[in-house]
Each structure stands twice: as C-alpha cells, then as structure tokens.
C-alpha cells in the first residue's frame, strides 16, 4: 500500500486569488459534440480502474461497449525458454565479430519466449438500448464532463426532453446509466446484451440480464450482470428487457472474471459480479452519483491549470481540434488536454486495480493491435509520466503491484536465459506476467524493461519522500540491479562493460552495447546507491555498484556531432525513426543535462534534429518532453500542435495526432501519447529533475499567461503559481516533507529551509510576501 503523505487543503484563499478565474473556467474542461459517435474513436470513455466503457450517444440506438481489466486470452504460464543461457556466449561472440545476421538467427531459434507471442486483452461486451420513435430529434448534445467524470446525452423529440447520464463508480464498482424524460410515461426503450466473443450466452429476467463469455484461447471466462430499476413497466420481449411508460430508469452494470492473480484462475465470475451488484441494487442513482463524484473529485480537484480561455472552448471538440491544426491559438486546449490526461489516469489506474495497458482500460477488438498489452520499452512507462506531477500519486500503485508480480517471473527468465540472479523483463509483459523476449530477436531481446520500470519506484519516492514506501519496494530495485551486475560483460573490442545481446528500441536489430541500455543501467545503479544510503542497508552491494558504474560504456559523440545510439559510430542522420531511445538520459533520465553535461546535451539535441518533427502520437509526446528539457518551449509547442491536430486526414489516411475524442493516435489508438503529452506540457512550466526546482524553464510564446495549482515536484513540494506576459507573478510552496527547497527562476536562485505542512508565499522575484 502506498502511504500517502499528501496534504490537499493548502491555502484555498491564495489559490483562488491567483487562479485567474480557474473555478469559472472549470466548466470548459469537457468534451462536447452536437452529434452521436460514428465509430469507437468518436465515443467517450469512462472508467473506474477495473471497468471501462465507451459511450456512443446514439439516439435511436445507444451503444455502450465495455471492458473488464482481467479478461485476457491465455492462462497461467511460464514463458521462459529452458536452457536458453547455453547459447548466450555464442550470440555475444557473433555480435562482437560483426556477424549480426548469424546472431539474430541463433537467438531466434534458441533464445526466445515459449510461446513466441504473449496474450491479448479482450473486449468484454456491449449494451444496446433501442428507443423507438426517436428518429426525428433536435437540440442534441453529447458531453464528457471531466470535472465530474460523467458522460451525458440530451436531445428533444417532439415536446419531450430526454437525458442520459453514464458513469463508472470506483466506490460502488459499477457502471451506472440513468435514463430520464421530462414528461411522465414518455420513456420507452428496449435493452439487450451482445459480445464479440464466439462463446457467449445471455440469460434474462424481467428486470435483470446476464451475459456469459468465454475467451477463445485461454482459461478465463466472464460474467456481466445488468439490472434495471424504473417507475415504468417492465417486460421481456424478443430476448430484450422492455421498459415502457416510464419517467426514469436506472441501469447498473457489473462484470467480473475467474481471474484471481497471474498464477490463479480459480475465481467464480458469477459470484464476483453478483457481489458488486448486491452493493448497489437497493441504491438510488443519485446516491451512487454523489458518492462517485465525491470520490473522484478528492483526487481530481487537487490540481488545476488555466492558460486563459479565448472563447474557443465553446466550439465542439472535433471542430476545436480541426481549428487548432490550422491555427494553434487555443492555449486553453492544452489545459483541457492535461486535465483529460488526468481523467484518463483516474479512469484506468486506481488503487487495487491493474495498470493501464497500451489502450488504458478500453479495447474493442478481439484481436487488438499489439495485443493491447504492456509494452515496456517506452509505452507503459510513458503512461505514468504525469502521475506524480499532476498530484495523482496513488494512481501509481497498480504499476508497483505489477512489478512485484513480474519480478517473480523475471527471476526465472534471468536464470534460464542468462544464468544470472536478480530479475529481468524484456520489452513486453501481459496479465500472466511474461518476462522473456517475444516476437522476434531483432527487437524482442531488449533487457532493460525491468530496470526502467524500477526507476518509477525512485520517482515516487522523490515526489512523496515516503521512506516507508522506499523500504517496501527497494528489493525490486535491488533485484533488477543485481541482474545487471552479473549480466554486463567486458566487450573484447573496447574493454567496456556492455549490455549484450540487446537492441535500441525498435531500430537497428540485435546488437551489442546500445546506448539506451547503458544509460538506464547507470541510472538504476545510482538510485540503488542512494536508496541504500537513505535506508541504511546493503553497503557492500552499494560499493559494488559504484565500482561498476565507471566501467560501463559511456555516452559518446559521433561523427555528425550526434549522440551515438550504438557502441559504434554508425548512426544514419537520414533515418527519421519514431524511437529516439538513446536520448533516454535527457528524458525521463537526467544524466544528460545543460548544467553538468552541456556537450552531450548539444549532441543529444543534434540527434533529435536528425530524427525530425514527425512521428506517431506517443513519439510526438516524447519529443514534447525532450524539447522541454532542451529548454526550447516553442519547438515543444510545435510538437504539441502536431499531437493535438486531427489524426484523421481529409484524404482518409490516419496518422499521429488526436482522434475526435482526444484519444492519441499511434495509429491506431494508444493511450501513452495522452499521458506523455500531459507530462510534456507540465515540463514547460516546471522542472525538478536536477538539484533545484526550475520555474517556467521553457515557456512557449503561446503560453504567456496562466496559473497552475497543486503541481507536485521532487523533494516533496506542491506548488501554486501564476505568470503574466511571460513573467512569474506569485508562487506558493507547500512543503510536505520539510526538506530544503531550492528554487530557480531565470538567473535567480534561492533556498528555503522548510517545515513540514507549512506554505511559503513568494513574489515573482522569489522574495517572501
């Protein structure tokens, strides 16, 4: 359990003073449309971390497609390739001799996961609601209220106004649907289940319905339970529940599977689904709604961002994205995007649930792209980049739970594939916590997934200063580091310790000594050393890591002035690849920075210039963060412009950018770009990865005024500040851990010796008020 030390009441009066009307502008934080969704990426997402749904908002027929986080193909399984380590030395030797093709073939034959691919996250089912006689309607509105986490539809048929509200409640663990009319006995509809699964069955009663599905390839089955409460008449017609002559109807939807954990599928789905239903079947919708809003807003309202509304928030969302593509003069759209990112995090990663996949909690495809699993060579990590910054620290917990699980299978893989102790994770995992290299050796053998994910433990500690948490999770960091103390080997050509075999995701094939690996391994060793000192443990292990760090192959500047991606100087400046993995030490790492390593910062910037400004959604998001770290706010804003432009082109093609519901387009949809874009926008306003907090370090010309409240930074501080004409005006610093606070704004730096729980107020010159 993450022990929260968050203090959420922090001088509300001051926050109101510098908010610039933030409370009023909260109404702008919504997605809204004047027509129903035509397709899935037009529909609006809701979620409670365990269940998710997409709301289409149809008039004659409403479609609510839903998911439950544990419905995957497959079954408990050890993916390790037994005895693969016997071929490790030969693969390394071939790579050291420049025989990449031979090494790739050998690795493909003898070193890969069994089976070669991991399993897929599945859609669960669909709820359809038919409204006869609603063909002709007016005053249509479809909205996602981000402040309340409620999707709503309203329209008028004749003289009657109809309204729907749909929410996913975390406290009650249900999806709740409220249908209403403003005239007595005017509501008439039919309700039924469906699913994409081949094995499915539906049972029905007067006010209840049950959908049972069985995944085609695996051990998991699921039960979805639905109940209707209404003041109208209930009946069953043609396998559908009929509600007639009603003023209102409430529908509760629950779902569960037989999944217990990655080793146990002995649960009884029906009992789990019914248990959730029993908690709400006697509750009124308004009570469920009130509890939902209260729970959601305890987290959501900790943070606010306002760039000033120039009136474009009144434009429907799809038109607003189109307008931004033509003229990116809509600063408040960026604030909406950040709050939408926070909304998606709260919808897909709550305490006690599983972390968000490549598509969060949402998925509508039995054979989803990339199996909708966890790709950990960038995408899963990117999902969690904004979680600490935007004051949603608790939402990090599912990722740490996954690490506890995957470290167990990763320990087996470390031994079978490398004859090493500790644990390792390659570039993907699934709900069965596969850790072995999958798909193909030219990109699947990448050894630093577990190492990168372990840095999230350290980041959570840096933001919260929760020493108990660090003590609880330190063993994961240590286990990941222990693997590399045995895995690294001395390159016969250079004498450096290198990572081999591996690759630089996802370019260049199987290689020895990719730069990204060495950056991550150094960072892992360094945070383990710091953690051991804080906790007062493992001095000998810490000394061992310290002795290894200078022996690891260093960053190098190549013939084109670029940061080398590989051990050899073989970068091709003409390649415009979406991955720029060897810049990891710029972001999310900090080894390369303008203060300590300006020459490498220049080389990294040159590498990014070579790769260009194109890319898929998540790639654009990473570049937003990169340019923020290069302190070039206008270049970063250029990437934001691309990310917030329509993914669907007039010629019918789809590229990187945003769908009409603001989902990120890889394409198709991947949620990582939403989260990476969110973190990148905050990096323009505040950075804390070095030994100080840098205020407005990369402010673009387009964001010359604004305010932010509740933003968290490393060291255990929470900031509220405003700026106008590009200049800092006021700043509040809440100290949550009583640490020394080093602040930097332009050329001025100060230090504050703080007390836990105390707030410090400063003006734009960093002078005390």
Strand runs, count: 33
Using only C-alpha atoms, the radius of gyration works out to: 26 Å
CATH superfamily of the domain at 34-72 and 120-301: putative glycoside hydrolase family protein from bacillus halodurans
For the record, what CATH class of the domain at 34-72 and 120-301 applies?
Answer: Mainly Beta
Strand content: 15-25%
First-last Cα distance: 38 Å
- The side-by-side strand order for the widest beta sheet comes to 1-6-7-8-9-16-13-12-11
Helix content: 25-40%
Which class of secondary structure composition applies to the elements? alpha+beta
- What would you call the quaternary organization? single chain
Number of helices: 20
Envelope shape:
globular
Mean pLDDT: 95
**Main sheet properties:** 9 strands, antiparallel
User: Could you say what the CATH topology of the domain at 34-72 and 120-301 is called?
Assistant: Beta-galactosidase, Chain A, domain 5
Name the poorly predicted regions. Answer: 1-26
CATH architecture of the domain at 34-72 and 120-301: Distorted Sandwich
